[in-house]
Specification:
CATH architecture of the largest domain: 2-Layer Sandwich
Largest sheet: 5 strands, antiparallel
Number of helices: 9
Helix content: 40-55%
Order of helices and strands: EEHHHEEEHHEHEEHEEHHEE
CATH superfamily of the largest domain: Histidine kinase-like ATPase, C-terminal domain
Strand content: 25-35%
CATH class of the largest domain: Alpha Beta
Structural class: alpha+beta
Length: 346
């Protein structure tokens, strides 16, 4: 069986097209097939100009590279496939010496670049925030223990029983802060991976939320029953999804409908790595939406959109999802908020 001389390109997360001297397609890697919704078998040998409705700018730069034998970088290039929306792309054209191939064209979707840059900024900020919070939690835990112990000793010495009400306030608040510190430190436990069914996770979350908000919250299910098992930490995933669904229930003031939706996503880039198959899990509610001033900060620790909230639920969800090499994003507008969790299934 003949080997594919371009198999190395097929492993790249970046869309790549190879063309010959006549500007005909010689090879398309899977990332490019996914980006432009085409297949190598159907377009091999076709003129590159025939693939797009508006390819004049791309063709002109290829002819320029052909004449000058130098690399070309095109920015904010707009390409449109028939029956598809226009793609805003940056592209790099490089001449190569090969008997069958003349150019390598690397495309970078601008929207995807912005998404990756945003993910990286969020990741860096989360790392810094978590380290700060972790150090702060460690500094607070020891004084808390002394404070609680002193309050207990003081309570034993009080002669008037009614004064114990005040020591109980100190003890209970110390316990509450201790629980908060424990939650801040919990994400640093490494996950314990095992095969699991994501729908079992969602059913567990559903039962917990319905028990917490009886009679007033409806949770609809739209599951893809054909999804294979994935490897993950069941308890961490339950907690990650539970925090998101509970947030949705609280945004609805305990009355309304939440939808849990699962689908398979193919050829997905997560945390700069390309996966052939991933799980797309969505939690959708029809609540008031997330205020604009909080939308970019909802995953930051101690940021909450409601009175009395600790601001840790979504931070923990993001941490647990990142433990599974996945991503969590939020798209919100008045009347609809959708949290999307993407997890690799390889």
């Amino acid at each position: 069986m003949a080997t594919n001389p371009y198999s190395g390109l097929d492993l790249l997360a970046t869309p790549v097209i190879l063309v010959d001297d006549e500007l005909r397609v010689a090879h398309v890697n899977p990332a490019a097939e996914d980006l432009f919704a085409l297949s190598l078998r159907s377009i091999s040998g076709q003129l590159l100009a025939q693939l797009f409705i508006d390819s004049a700018e791309l063709t002109a730069c290829l002819e320029d590279v052909l004449g000058q034998n130098w690399s070309y970088t095109g920015r904010d290039l707009i390409l449109t496939r028939p029956t598809q929306a226009s793609q805003h792309l940056n592209c790099l054209v490089m001449p190569i010496e090969d008997s069958a191939v003349r150019f390598l064209i690397e495309f970078r979707p601008i929207d995807q670049q912005l998404k990756l840059a945003r993910e990286q900024r969020q990741f860096d900020q989360q790392q810094a925030n978590r380290e700060l919070i972790r150090n702060l939690a460690h500094e607070i835990r020891n004084p808390l223990g002394g404070l609680r112990g002193s309050a207990q000793l003081l309570e034993r010495e009080l002669e008037r029983p009614e004064l114990r009400e005040y020591t109980q306030v100190i003890i209970k608040e110390a316990d509450r802060l201790q629980a908060l510190m424990d939650r801040l430190l919990t994400p640093h436990r490494p996950p314990k991976f095992a095969a699991l069914n994501i729908h079992e996770v969602l059913e567990r979350v559903r039962s917990l939320v319905l028990a917490e908000f009886p009679d007033r919250i409806r949770i609809e299910r739209d599951y893809d029953a054909s999804l294979p098992d994935l490897h993950g930490d069941k308890e961490q995933l339950i907690q990650a999804v539970l925090n998101v669904v509970r947030n949705a229930a609280q945004a609805l003031n305990g009355t309304g409908e939440i939808e849990l939706r699962t689908r398979a996503a193919r050829q997905v880039t997560l945390a700069k790595r390309r996966y052939k198959l991933a799980l797309e899990l969505q939690v959708i509610d029809k609540g008031p939406g997330i205020p604009d001033e909080l939308r970019e900060r909802i995953f930051y620790p101690l940021v909450s959109g409601r009175d009395g909230g600790s601001g840790l639920g979504l931070t923990l969800s993001q941490t647990f999802v990142q433990h599974h090499h996945g991503t969590i994003e939020c798209d919100s507008e008045p009347g609809r908020t959708c949290f999307t969790i993407m997890l690799p299934m390889e």
